[in-house]
Write a structure and sequence with these properties.
The complex is a heterodimer of chains A (256) and B (257).
Chain A lengths: L2 E12 L2 E12 L3 E5 L6 H9 L6 E6 L2 E2 L8 H5 L2 E4 L11 H5 L1 H6 L4 H14 L16 H13 L5 E5 L7 H18 L2 E6 L2 H7 L2 E6 L2 E7 L9 H7 L15
Helix pairs in contact in A: 5-6, 6-7
Chain B lengths: L2 H31 L5 H39 L7 H39 L2 H7 L4 H38 L5 H11 L2 H27 L4 H31 L3
Helix pairs in contact in B: 1-5, 2-3, 2-5, 3-5, 3-6, 3-7, 3-8, 5-7, 7-8
The chains are: A alpha/beta (256), B mainly alpha (257).
Chain lengths: 256, 257
Protein backbone atom coordinates (compact mmCIF):
# COMPACT_ATOMS: atom_id res chain seq x y z
CA UNK A 1 0.00 0.00 0.00
CA UNK A 2 1.43 3.40 -0.91
CA UNK A 3 1.54 6.09 1.77
CA UNK A 4 -1.36 8.51 1.33
CA UNK A 5 -0.69 10.92 4.13
CA UNK A 6 2.59 11.56 5.84
CA UNK A 7 3.60 14.04 8.52
CA UNK A 8 7.29 14.63 9.24
CA UNK A 9 8.81 16.49 12.15
CA UNK A 10 5.77 18.69 12.67
CA UNK A 11 6.29 21.35 15.35
CA UNK A 12 4.10 24.18 16.54
CA UNK A 13 4.38 26.55 19.48
CA UNK A 14 2.01 29.18 20.76
CA UNK A 15 4.12 31.79 22.50
CA UNK A 16 6.34 29.99 24.99
CA UNK A 17 4.22 26.83 24.98
CA UNK A 18 5.30 24.22 22.46
CA UNK A 19 2.32 22.06 21.59
CA UNK A 20 3.74 19.79 18.90
CA UNK A 21 7.38 18.71 19.19
CA UNK A 22 8.28 16.88 16.03
CA UNK A 23 5.33 14.63 15.20
CA UNK A 24 5.90 11.88 12.63
CA UNK A 25 2.92 9.97 11.25
CA UNK A 26 2.18 7.91 8.16
CA UNK A 27 -1.14 6.59 6.93
CA UNK A 28 -1.30 4.10 4.08
CA UNK A 29 -3.91 4.45 1.38
CA UNK A 30 -7.29 3.07 2.43
CA UNK A 31 -6.28 2.73 6.09
CA UNK A 32 -7.75 4.38 9.13
CA UNK A 33 -5.43 5.80 11.78
CA UNK A 34 -6.76 7.10 15.07
CA UNK A 35 -4.62 9.37 17.22
CA UNK A 36 -5.52 9.13 20.90
CA UNK A 37 -4.34 11.33 23.72
CA UNK A 38 -5.55 13.38 26.64
CA UNK A 39 -6.96 16.87 26.46
CA UNK A 40 -4.34 19.48 25.70
CA UNK A 41 -1.81 17.07 24.18
CA UNK A 42 -1.97 18.77 20.79
CA UNK A 43 -4.38 16.48 18.93
CA UNK A 44 -6.53 19.32 17.62
CA UNK A 45 -3.52 21.40 16.67
CA UNK A 46 -2.11 18.41 14.75
CA UNK A 47 -5.34 18.03 12.81
CA UNK A 48 -5.64 21.75 12.12
CA UNK A 49 -2.09 21.86 10.80
CA UNK A 50 -2.79 19.00 8.40
CA UNK A 51 -5.98 20.73 7.23
CA UNK A 52 -4.06 23.93 6.57
CA UNK A 53 -6.02 25.94 9.16
CA UNK A 54 -2.92 26.55 11.29
CA UNK A 55 0.56 27.04 9.85
CA UNK A 56 3.13 24.88 11.67
CA UNK A 57 6.52 26.28 12.73
CA UNK A 58 8.46 23.39 11.21
CA UNK A 59 7.92 20.09 9.49
CA UNK A 60 6.36 18.71 6.33
CA UNK A 61 2.89 17.42 5.47
CA UNK A 62 2.65 15.20 2.41
CA UNK A 63 -0.64 14.15 0.85
CA UNK A 64 -0.41 12.03 -2.32
CA UNK A 65 3.27 12.80 -2.69
CA UNK A 66 2.77 16.57 -2.55
CA UNK A 67 4.14 18.77 0.22
CA UNK A 68 0.92 20.68 0.95
CA UNK A 69 2.68 23.38 2.95
CA UNK A 70 4.67 24.34 -0.15
CA UNK A 71 1.62 24.46 -2.42
CA UNK A 72 0.95 27.93 -3.80
CA UNK A 73 -2.22 29.62 -2.49
CA UNK A 74 -4.00 29.08 -5.83
CA UNK A 75 -3.54 25.31 -5.59
CA UNK A 76 -5.09 24.96 -2.14
CA UNK A 77 -8.75 24.73 -3.24
CA UNK A 78 -7.86 21.88 -5.61
CA UNK A 79 -6.19 20.01 -2.74
CA UNK A 80 -9.08 20.68 -0.40
CA UNK A 81 -11.50 19.19 -2.89
CA UNK A 82 -10.02 15.79 -2.04
CA UNK A 83 -10.49 16.01 1.71
CA UNK A 84 -13.50 15.84 4.00
CA UNK A 85 -13.65 16.83 7.62
CA UNK A 86 -16.12 16.20 10.44
CA UNK A 87 -15.77 18.82 13.16
CA UNK A 88 -16.18 18.11 16.85
CA UNK A 89 -19.42 20.09 17.24
CA UNK A 90 -20.35 19.37 13.60
CA UNK A 91 -19.88 23.11 12.73
CA UNK A 92 -22.97 23.18 10.53
CA UNK A 93 -23.81 26.52 8.93
CA UNK A 94 -26.79 27.64 10.99
CA UNK A 95 -28.00 30.16 8.43
CA UNK A 96 -28.52 27.41 5.84
CA UNK A 97 -30.88 24.48 5.66
CA UNK A 98 -29.65 20.94 6.26
CA UNK A 99 -29.53 20.04 2.56
CA UNK A 100 -27.62 23.24 1.71
CA UNK A 101 -25.13 22.28 4.40
CA UNK A 102 -24.64 18.81 2.98
CA UNK A 103 -24.13 20.02 -0.58
CA UNK A 104 -22.36 23.27 0.37
CA UNK A 105 -19.23 22.32 -1.54
CA UNK A 106 -21.24 21.31 -4.60
CA UNK A 107 -23.34 24.49 -4.48
CA UNK A 108 -20.67 27.07 -3.77
CA UNK A 109 -17.42 25.33 -4.66
CA UNK A 110 -18.49 23.63 -7.87
CA UNK A 111 -21.56 25.77 -8.69
CA UNK A 112 -23.87 22.81 -9.21
CA UNK A 113 -27.53 23.55 -10.05
CA UNK A 114 -29.63 23.82 -6.89
CA UNK A 115 -32.17 21.08 -7.69
CA UNK A 116 -29.39 18.68 -8.63
CA UNK A 117 -27.42 19.51 -5.48
CA UNK A 118 -30.54 18.96 -3.42
CA UNK A 119 -30.99 15.47 -4.85
CA UNK A 120 -27.37 14.67 -4.06
CA UNK A 121 -27.82 15.98 -0.52
CA UNK A 122 -30.86 13.79 0.06
CA UNK A 123 -28.94 10.74 -1.20
CA UNK A 124 -26.06 11.57 1.18
CA UNK A 125 -28.49 11.99 4.07
CA UNK A 126 -29.94 8.56 3.32
CA UNK A 127 -26.43 7.06 3.53
CA UNK A 128 -26.15 8.29 7.11
CA UNK A 129 -29.63 7.08 7.97
CA UNK A 130 -31.54 10.36 7.79
CA UNK A 131 -34.92 10.63 6.02
CA UNK A 132 -35.54 13.22 3.26
CA UNK A 133 -37.79 15.28 5.59
CA UNK A 134 -34.66 16.37 7.48
CA UNK A 135 -33.35 18.15 4.37
CA UNK A 136 -35.46 21.26 4.83
CA UNK A 137 -34.92 21.66 8.56
CA UNK A 138 -32.47 24.13 10.00
CA UNK A 139 -29.45 22.64 11.86
CA UNK A 140 -30.59 24.11 15.18
CA UNK A 141 -33.70 21.92 15.04
CA UNK A 142 -31.59 18.74 15.14
CA UNK A 143 -30.28 16.78 18.13
CA UNK A 144 -26.53 16.46 18.69
CA UNK A 145 -26.42 12.99 17.16
CA UNK A 146 -28.37 14.11 14.09
CA UNK A 147 -26.08 17.12 13.68
CA UNK A 148 -23.11 14.73 13.69
CA UNK A 149 -24.80 12.65 11.01
CA UNK A 150 -25.41 15.73 8.87
CA UNK A 151 -21.77 16.76 9.45
CA UNK A 152 -20.68 13.31 8.28
CA UNK A 153 -22.94 13.53 5.23
CA UNK A 154 -21.43 16.94 4.41
CA UNK A 155 -17.87 15.60 4.83
CA UNK A 156 -18.41 12.71 2.42
CA UNK A 157 -20.74 14.45 -0.07
CA UNK A 158 -18.02 15.22 -2.61
CA UNK A 159 -16.40 11.73 -2.48
CA UNK A 160 -13.20 12.82 -0.76
CA UNK A 161 -10.13 10.60 -0.78
CA UNK A 162 -8.93 11.58 2.68
CA UNK A 163 -11.26 11.99 5.65
CA UNK A 164 -10.58 13.66 8.99
CA UNK A 165 -12.61 13.23 12.15
CA UNK A 166 -12.24 15.48 15.19
CA UNK A 167 -13.60 13.76 18.33
CA UNK A 168 -16.51 12.21 16.41
CA UNK A 169 -18.25 10.81 19.51
CA UNK A 170 -17.66 13.56 22.06
CA UNK A 171 -20.87 14.73 23.68
CA UNK A 172 -22.99 11.82 22.44
CA UNK A 173 -24.65 9.11 24.50
CA UNK A 174 -22.99 5.64 24.20
CA UNK A 175 -25.63 4.26 21.83
CA UNK A 176 -25.61 7.24 19.49
CA UNK A 177 -21.81 7.23 19.68
CA UNK A 178 -21.78 3.63 18.50
CA UNK A 179 -24.16 4.47 15.65
CA UNK A 180 -21.84 7.29 14.55
CA UNK A 181 -18.81 4.97 14.83
CA UNK A 182 -20.54 2.41 12.61
CA UNK A 183 -21.48 5.08 10.09
CA UNK A 184 -17.93 6.39 10.00
CA UNK A 185 -16.45 2.92 9.52
CA UNK A 186 -19.07 2.21 6.86
CA UNK A 187 -18.58 5.47 4.91
CA UNK A 188 -14.79 5.28 4.99
CA UNK A 189 -14.94 1.74 3.66
CA UNK A 190 -17.54 2.59 0.98
CA UNK A 191 -15.41 5.47 -0.31
CA UNK A 192 -12.17 3.51 -0.06
CA UNK A 193 -10.88 6.61 1.68
CA UNK A 194 -7.92 7.11 3.97
CA UNK A 195 -8.95 8.34 7.40
CA UNK A 196 -7.23 10.18 10.23
CA UNK A 197 -9.18 10.72 13.43
CA UNK A 198 -8.39 12.17 16.82
CA UNK A 199 -10.27 11.12 19.91
CA UNK A 200 -9.94 10.33 23.57
CA UNK A 201 -12.76 7.78 23.37
CA UNK A 202 -11.06 4.36 23.37
CA UNK A 203 -14.21 2.46 22.38
CA UNK A 204 -14.59 4.71 19.36
CA UNK A 205 -10.90 4.41 18.47
CA UNK A 206 -11.00 0.60 18.55
CA UNK A 207 -14.09 0.59 16.39
CA UNK A 208 -12.95 2.86 13.55
CA UNK A 209 -9.17 2.33 13.56
CA UNK A 210 -6.88 -0.01 11.71
CA UNK A 211 -3.96 1.51 13.58
CA UNK A 212 -3.83 3.58 16.73
CA UNK A 213 -1.15 6.09 17.70
CA UNK A 214 -0.86 7.87 21.00
CA UNK A 215 0.12 11.51 21.24
CA UNK A 216 1.58 12.69 24.52
CA UNK A 217 3.21 16.05 25.19
CA UNK A 218 3.48 16.81 21.49
CA UNK A 219 5.15 13.54 20.45
CA UNK A 220 3.89 10.19 19.18
CA UNK A 221 4.88 7.79 21.98
CA UNK A 222 3.31 4.59 20.64
CA UNK A 223 1.80 3.22 17.48
CA UNK A 224 0.37 -0.19 16.74
CA UNK A 225 -2.58 -2.14 15.36
CA UNK A 226 -5.92 -1.31 16.99
CA UNK A 227 -6.31 -4.79 18.49
CA UNK A 228 -3.06 -4.42 20.43
CA UNK A 229 -3.90 -1.13 22.12
CA UNK A 230 -5.32 -2.77 25.25
CA UNK A 231 -2.13 -4.80 25.75
CA UNK A 232 0.52 -2.50 24.36
CA UNK A 233 3.02 -2.99 27.18
CA UNK A 234 3.61 0.76 27.16
CA UNK A 235 2.84 2.08 30.67
CA UNK A 236 1.52 5.43 29.42
CA UNK A 237 -0.77 3.84 26.81
CA UNK A 238 -1.92 1.35 29.45
CA UNK A 239 -2.78 4.12 31.87
CA UNK A 240 -4.69 6.04 29.19
CA UNK A 241 -6.72 3.18 27.70
CA UNK A 242 -7.67 1.88 31.12
CA UNK A 243 -8.42 5.36 32.41
CA UNK A 244 -6.33 5.31 35.58
CA UNK A 245 -5.66 8.48 37.53
CA UNK A 246 -2.33 7.09 38.77
CA UNK A 247 0.54 6.33 36.45
CA UNK A 248 3.35 7.92 34.50
CA UNK A 249 1.01 10.55 32.95
CA UNK A 250 0.26 13.50 35.17
CA UNK A 251 -2.61 15.58 33.81
CA UNK A 252 -2.05 19.28 33.93
CA UNK A 253 -4.98 20.84 35.72
CA UNK A 254 -4.34 24.30 34.38
CA UNK A 255 -4.79 25.15 30.72
CA UNK A 256 -1.93 26.72 28.75
CA UNK B 1 6.81 50.11 34.86
CA UNK B 2 8.86 52.02 32.35
CA UNK B 3 6.63 54.66 30.74
CA UNK B 4 8.73 54.84 27.57
CA UNK B 5 8.38 51.13 27.08
CA UNK B 6 4.62 51.29 27.67
CA UNK B 7 4.18 54.06 25.10
CA UNK B 8 6.43 52.22 22.64
CA UNK B 9 4.50 48.97 23.02
CA UNK B 10 1.18 50.76 22.59
CA UNK B 11 2.40 52.53 19.47
CA UNK B 12 3.74 49.37 17.90
CA UNK B 13 0.57 47.42 18.56
CA UNK B 14 -1.56 50.28 17.19
CA UNK B 15 0.52 50.40 14.01
CA UNK B 16 0.30 46.64 13.71
CA UNK B 17 -3.50 46.81 14.00
CA UNK B 18 -3.71 49.50 11.32
CA UNK B 19 -1.60 47.30 9.07
CA UNK B 20 -3.80 44.26 9.68
CA UNK B 21 -6.98 46.23 9.01
CA UNK B 22 -5.54 47.67 5.78
CA UNK B 23 -4.50 44.21 4.64
CA UNK B 24 -7.93 42.85 5.48
CA UNK B 25 -9.65 45.66 3.58
CA UNK B 26 -7.42 45.10 0.55
CA UNK B 27 -8.17 41.37 0.64
CA UNK B 28 -11.89 42.06 0.90
CA UNK B 29 -11.79 44.37 -2.12
CA UNK B 30 -9.75 41.85 -4.10
CA UNK B 31 -12.22 39.10 -3.22
CA UNK B 32 -15.17 41.30 -4.20
CA UNK B 33 -13.69 42.16 -7.59
CA UNK B 34 -12.45 38.75 -8.75
CA UNK B 35 -14.40 35.53 -9.42
CA UNK B 36 -15.94 33.36 -8.14
CA UNK B 37 -18.79 35.78 -7.31
CA UNK B 38 -21.62 34.88 -4.97
CA UNK B 39 -24.41 37.05 -6.35
CA UNK B 40 -27.11 35.30 -4.41
CA UNK B 41 -25.33 35.91 -1.11
CA UNK B 42 -24.51 39.51 -2.11
CA UNK B 43 -28.07 40.31 -3.10
CA UNK B 44 -29.59 38.76 0.00
CA UNK B 45 -27.04 40.48 2.28
CA UNK B 46 -27.74 43.82 0.58
CA UNK B 47 -31.51 43.57 0.76
CA UNK B 48 -31.46 42.39 4.35
CA UNK B 49 -29.08 45.19 5.32
CA UNK B 50 -31.00 47.99 3.60
CA UNK B 51 -34.51 46.85 4.38
CA UNK B 52 -33.89 46.15 8.05
CA UNK B 53 -32.10 49.46 8.54
CA UNK B 54 -34.90 51.58 7.07
CA UNK B 55 -36.92 52.11 10.28
CA UNK B 56 -33.95 53.22 12.35
CA UNK B 57 -32.67 55.45 9.54
CA UNK B 58 -36.10 57.03 9.09
CA UNK B 59 -36.65 57.70 12.79
CA UNK B 60 -33.17 59.15 13.24
CA UNK B 61 -33.60 61.43 10.24
CA UNK B 62 -37.08 62.74 11.01
CA UNK B 63 -36.25 63.74 14.59
CA UNK B 64 -32.89 65.22 13.66
CA UNK B 65 -34.45 67.28 10.88
CA UNK B 66 -37.18 68.51 13.21
CA UNK B 67 -34.81 69.52 16.01
CA UNK B 68 -32.42 71.07 13.53
CA UNK B 69 -35.20 73.25 12.09
CA UNK B 70 -36.00 74.66 15.53
CA UNK B 71 -32.35 75.38 16.30
CA UNK B 72 -31.57 76.98 12.97
CA UNK B 73 -34.67 79.17 13.12
CA UNK B 74 -33.97 80.28 16.68
CA UNK B 75 -30.30 81.02 15.91
CA UNK B 76 -30.74 82.78 12.60
CA UNK B 77 -33.72 84.83 13.79
CA UNK B 78 -31.25 86.72 16.03
CA UNK B 79 -29.89 88.48 12.95
CA UNK B 80 -33.17 88.48 11.06
CA UNK B 81 -32.19 85.56 8.84
CA UNK B 82 -34.95 83.20 9.99
CA UNK B 83 -36.38 82.98 6.49
CA UNK B 84 -33.24 81.19 5.30
CA UNK B 85 -34.23 78.13 7.34
CA UNK B 86 -35.01 75.92 4.28
CA UNK B 87 -31.66 76.61 2.66
CA UNK B 88 -29.56 76.11 5.80
CA UNK B 89 -31.53 73.07 6.89
CA UNK B 90 -31.27 71.30 3.56
CA UNK B 91 -27.58 71.92 3.05
CA UNK B 92 -26.78 70.78 6.62
CA UNK B 93 -28.71 67.58 6.15
CA UNK B 94 -27.57 66.47 2.70
CA UNK B 95 -23.94 67.41 3.16
CA UNK B 96 -23.31 66.50 6.76
CA UNK B 97 -25.98 65.15 9.06
CA UNK B 98 -27.68 62.74 6.68
CA UNK B 99 -24.52 60.80 5.81
CA UNK B 100 -22.88 61.00 9.25
CA UNK B 101 -25.91 60.17 11.39
CA UNK B 102 -27.07 57.40 9.06
CA UNK B 103 -23.58 55.89 9.05
CA UNK B 104 -23.32 56.05 12.84
CA UNK B 105 -26.70 54.37 13.23
CA UNK B 106 -25.65 51.73 10.71
CA UNK B 107 -22.45 51.11 12.70
CA UNK B 108 -24.54 50.40 15.76
CA UNK B 109 -27.00 48.28 13.85
CA UNK B 110 -25.15 46.55 11.06
CA UNK B 111 -21.42 46.58 11.84
CA UNK B 112 -22.27 45.06 15.22
CA UNK B 113 -24.56 42.47 13.63
CA UNK B 114 -21.86 41.47 11.13
CA UNK B 115 -19.25 41.19 13.88
CA UNK B 116 -21.54 39.10 16.06
CA UNK B 117 -22.60 36.80 13.21
CA UNK B 118 -19.10 36.21 11.82
CA UNK B 119 -17.72 35.97 15.36
CA UNK B 120 -20.17 33.22 16.26
CA UNK B 121 -19.33 31.42 13.03
CA UNK B 122 -15.63 31.68 13.91
CA UNK B 123 -15.93 30.32 17.45
CA UNK B 124 -18.19 27.43 16.37
CA UNK B 125 -15.67 26.37 13.66
CA UNK B 126 -18.07 27.27 10.84
CA UNK B 127 -15.46 29.43 9.11
CA UNK B 128 -12.85 26.66 9.32
CA UNK B 129 -15.45 24.19 8.08
CA UNK B 130 -16.04 26.42 5.07
CA UNK B 131 -12.33 26.36 4.22
CA UNK B 132 -12.26 22.58 4.36
CA UNK B 133 -15.22 22.53 1.96
CA UNK B 134 -13.07 24.33 -0.62
CA UNK B 135 -15.08 27.57 -0.39
CA UNK B 136 -13.05 30.69 0.42
CA UNK B 137 -14.71 32.42 3.43
CA UNK B 138 -13.40 35.75 2.16
CA UNK B 139 -15.39 35.36 -1.02
CA UNK B 140 -18.49 33.75 0.43
CA UNK B 141 -18.83 35.68 3.71
CA UNK B 142 -16.90 38.91 3.55
CA UNK B 143 -16.94 40.12 -0.05
CA UNK B 144 -20.76 39.99 -0.32
CA UNK B 145 -21.21 41.94 2.91
CA UNK B 146 -18.65 44.61 2.10
CA UNK B 147 -19.82 45.01 -1.50
CA UNK B 148 -23.53 45.17 -0.75
CA UNK B 149 -23.16 47.47 2.27
CA UNK B 150 -20.91 49.85 0.35
CA UNK B 151 -23.42 50.09 -2.50
CA UNK B 152 -26.53 50.25 -0.33
CA UNK B 153 -25.39 52.91 2.15
CA UNK B 154 -25.73 55.82 -0.36
CA UNK B 155 -29.27 54.65 -1.04
CA UNK B 156 -30.07 54.69 2.66
CA UNK B 157 -28.46 58.11 3.03
CA UNK B 158 -30.64 59.42 0.21
CA UNK B 159 -33.65 58.15 2.14
CA UNK B 160 -32.29 59.80 5.30
CA UNK B 161 -31.83 63.11 3.42
CA UNK B 162 -35.41 63.12 2.20
CA UNK B 163 -36.94 62.12 5.53
CA UNK B 164 -34.67 64.55 7.42
CA UNK B 165 -35.78 67.47 5.26
CA UNK B 166 -39.35 66.30 5.68
CA UNK B 167 -38.90 66.40 9.48
CA UNK B 168 -37.68 69.98 9.20
CA UNK B 169 -40.57 70.81 6.89
CA UNK B 170 -43.08 69.50 9.44
CA UNK B 171 -41.69 71.78 12.14
CA UNK B 172 -41.39 74.74 9.78
CA UNK B 173 -44.99 74.45 8.57
CA UNK B 174 -46.78 73.44 11.75
CA UNK B 175 -44.71 75.22 14.40
CA UNK B 176 -42.98 78.13 12.68
CA UNK B 177 -45.79 79.06 10.24
CA UNK B 178 -43.78 78.66 7.04
CA UNK B 179 -45.67 78.05 3.81
CA UNK B 180 -45.14 74.43 2.77
CA UNK B 181 -44.79 74.95 -1.01
CA UNK B 182 -42.50 77.96 -0.65
CA UNK B 183 -40.31 76.00 1.79
CA UNK B 184 -39.85 73.23 -0.78
CA UNK B 185 -39.47 75.75 -3.60
CA UNK B 186 -36.67 77.55 -1.76
CA UNK B 187 -34.82 74.29 -1.23
CA UNK B 188 -35.22 73.23 -4.85
CA UNK B 189 -33.90 76.58 -6.05
CA UNK B 190 -30.99 76.68 -3.63
CA UNK B 191 -29.66 73.12 -3.41
CA UNK B 192 -26.98 72.21 -5.97
CA UNK B 193 -26.45 68.69 -7.15
CA UNK B 194 -22.91 68.74 -5.77
CA UNK B 195 -24.37 69.18 -2.27
CA UNK B 196 -26.23 65.91 -2.59
CA UNK B 197 -23.49 64.11 -4.49
CA UNK B 198 -20.84 65.01 -1.91
CA UNK B 199 -23.04 63.44 0.77
CA UNK B 200 -23.49 60.31 -1.29
CA UNK B 201 -19.75 60.00 -1.90
CA UNK B 202 -19.27 60.17 1.86
CA UNK B 203 -21.94 57.49 2.26
CA UNK B 204 -20.09 55.19 -0.10
CA UNK B 205 -16.91 55.48 1.98
CA UNK B 206 -18.81 55.16 5.28
CA UNK B 207 -20.51 51.99 4.03
CA UNK B 208 -17.14 50.51 3.18
CA UNK B 209 -15.71 51.49 6.58
CA UNK B 210 -18.56 50.08 8.67
CA UNK B 211 -18.82 46.78 6.78
CA UNK B 212 -15.06 46.26 6.79
CA UNK B 213 -14.87 46.91 10.52
CA UNK B 214 -17.81 44.60 11.24
CA UNK B 215 -16.25 41.83 9.17
CA UNK B 216 -12.68 42.38 10.39
CA UNK B 217 -13.49 42.13 14.08
CA UNK B 218 -16.00 39.31 13.63
CA UNK B 219 -13.72 37.26 11.40
CA UNK B 220 -10.81 37.59 13.81
CA UNK B 221 -12.73 36.98 17.03
CA UNK B 222 -11.40 34.40 19.48
CA UNK B 223 -12.45 32.76 22.69
CA UNK B 224 -16.15 31.95 22.89
CA UNK B 225 -19.04 34.19 23.84
CA UNK B 226 -16.82 36.74 25.55
CA UNK B 227 -14.67 37.03 22.44
CA UNK B 228 -17.72 37.61 20.26
CA UNK B 229 -18.91 40.35 22.64
CA UNK B 230 -15.51 42.03 22.56
CA UNK B 231 -15.44 41.80 18.76
CA UNK B 232 -18.87 43.39 18.47
CA UNK B 233 -17.92 46.28 20.72
CA UNK B 234 -14.61 46.84 18.93
CA UNK B 235 -16.37 46.84 15.56
CA UNK B 236 -18.85 49.54 16.60
CA UNK B 237 -16.24 51.75 18.26
CA UNK B 238 -13.71 51.46 15.44
CA UNK B 239 -16.28 52.04 12.75
CA UNK B 240 -17.80 55.09 14.48
CA UNK B 241 -14.42 56.71 15.10
CA UNK B 242 -13.17 56.01 11.59
CA UNK B 243 -16.40 57.36 10.07
CA UNK B 244 -16.07 60.63 11.97
CA UNK B 245 -12.40 60.99 11.09
CA UNK B 246 -13.01 60.13 7.44
CA UNK B 247 -15.87 62.62 7.42
CA UNK B 248 -13.56 65.47 8.32
CA UNK B 249 -10.93 64.46 5.78
CA UNK B 250 -13.49 64.07 3.00
CA UNK B 251 -15.30 67.27 3.87
CA UNK B 252 -12.07 69.23 3.61
CA UNK B 253 -11.69 67.93 0.05
CA UNK B 254 -15.33 68.23 -0.96
CA UNK B 255 -16.02 71.85 0.06
CA UNK B 256 -14.82 74.70 -2.13
CA UNK B 257 -13.33 77.14 0.35
Amino acid sequence: MPTKLSVRGLSKSFGAKSVLRGVDLEVDEGKSLVVIGGSGTGKSVLLRCILGLIHPDAGEIWIDGEDVLKLPEAERPRRRRQIGMLFQAAALFDSLKVWENVSFRLLYGERMKRDLARERAIACLAQVGLPPEVADLSPSELSGGMQKRVGLARAVAADPKVLFFDEPTTGLDPITADVINNLIADRVKALGATALSITHDIASARKIADDIAMLHEGCIIWRGPAREVMSSGNPMVDQFVHGRADGPIRMALKAG
Amino acid sequence: MNPVRTIGRGTISAIREVGRISLFAAQAVAAALTPPYYWRATLSAGLRFAFNALPVIGLTAVFTGAALALNIYDGSARFNAGTFLPQILSVSIVRELGPVLAALMLSGRSASAMAAELGSMRVTDQIDAMSTLAVDPFRYLIAPRVLSTTLMTPLLVLVADIIGIYGGWLVAVFVLDFSGPIFIGNIAEFLESRDVVSGLIKALVFGFILSTMGCYYGYGSRGGAQGVGAATRAAVVASAVLILAANYVMTSFLVEV
